[in-house]
# Entry
Amino acid sequence: MAVRRGVLAVVTAAVLAGLAGRAAAVQRAEPLPKALEGVGITEHLGARIPLGLEFTAEDGTPVLLSRYFDGKRPVILTLNYYRCPMLCGLMLNGLVDGLKGLSWTPGKQFEVVTLSFDPLETHTLAMLKKESFISELGRPAAAAGWHFLTGSQANIKALTDAVGFSYRYDEKLQQYAHPTGIFLLAPDGRITRVLYGVTFPPRTLKLALTEAGEGKVGSAGDQILLYCFHYDSNAGRYVLAANNLMRLGGVATVLVVGVWLGVAWRRSANKHVDSRAETNAPGL
# Structure
């Protein structure tokens, strides 16, 4: 039994992380393993999640999902279960590694919401997971902005359906087969991006948060950088957008030429004024 559990965990990690959780979007020549049938992410970009759903915070208090959407800051949503023997830990550790490379901190520029899709898990377990990952992140202030939730089966299903996250429980192994990825949400709860896999480079996170923040987070330089990059779903990362880069280069060229012409015109005008002044000056 232990060997079979290990095999399923390895298969799940390799297939779902390697294929970036996009089984529904990619035509496969061979069928999925039976344990992974019906498992994946169907992107619902632009859809708004139901913010009126109630869950339980890690301290045991009931909270509405809307609590974490203030209309100003984007939100990273992760769907995991806290007793997962392998994949969820890999993904959350990958998120921590990515967050370490950001100068931004959860609770300040953005929020992170982690929800267990196992309705049997308790807020006590959620608190233990939160303490572990906040400690690993090494930023105590992030505790105010990274929230670990549990909830009822009905509310969990309502949220997972809204974001297109499909999973299934294996009764024999007593484990969940599930995809892996994080959801980027706008301050009003709209899904703006899905990042797949178990690693999330800092630049990718920053660009995705800037995109989700709709200009409300990030500097002017971040906004320009986002303009130069677009998200390549096949590559699973942001890549240079040649057309945007050419447009930006064209705008820069126009600005430079405009400034140069302005300076030249001012110099010419000043010389003309000086020449007239000399001509009109009284002789000695």
